[in-house]
Amino acid sequence: xxxxxxxxxxxxxxxxxxxxxxxxxxxxxxxxxxxxxxxxxxxxxxxxxxxxxxxxxxxxxxxxxxxxxxxxxxxxxxxxxxxxxxxxxxxxxxxxxxxxxxxxxxxxxxxxxxxxxxxxxxxxxxxxxxxxxxxxxxxxxxxxxxxxxxxxxxxxxxxxxxxxxxxxxxxxxxxxxxxxxxxxxxxxxxxxxxxxxxxxxxxxxxxxxxxxxxxxxxxxxxxxxxxxxxxxxxxxxxxxxxxxxx
Length: 246
Prior knowledge:
- The chain is an all-beta fold.
- The protein has strands at residues 2-7, 25-36, 39-49, 61-67, 72-78, 80-86, 103-113, 121-127, 145-151, 164-165, 185-186, 192-197.
- β4 (61-67) and β5 (72-78) form a beta hairpin.
- The chain is globular and about 50 Å long.
- Mean pLDDT is 86; it is low at 1-14 and 16-22.
């Protein structure tokens, strides 16, 4: 069986200005691993701006579980397991990355028992808001983020764990310089993975920045700011990805 894995760059999908202002959410991913007997280990990874007293990680964070009709099946509060700073890395040995940028990564892990149901499940986490300094998406109103992981119907796949990225992209890339990155993922079940670039999803808003449980699907995509687009998120030479290798 193969799974189409939607590639949303965790840290560099958005183009930032050099200003020091920021909001909160930089990126994230939601993964699960099947442990047997309908038990899943769910792992939420959230990246936040940690410069200038921005909002802390949710503690607890709320993860919702929805069926394929968009109805809430259950939700769980999970407390942050670890928080670490990310090093500022740039894709050029000749340049020094800026020092007025600070990223932290928070990891949440919980076990959930989810017996098979028709259509499978959607795991969801939502948070507001994305950085004020983003240049390539519409910031009016200030958008939040939604992270989803899909557990397929057991008719299609009896046992499944979703793929996980092998590497993190650098926190900075140089304008006008060639850039190539291995954004492949590993699937412990041996499933074939197909890669594509996707538009991120909107999530929570400023009036309800950390909904518990998360809002139900479907979720709307962010709006790109001209001249940027899904296939050209950085401007200049359009971004491409090998659908087989990542």
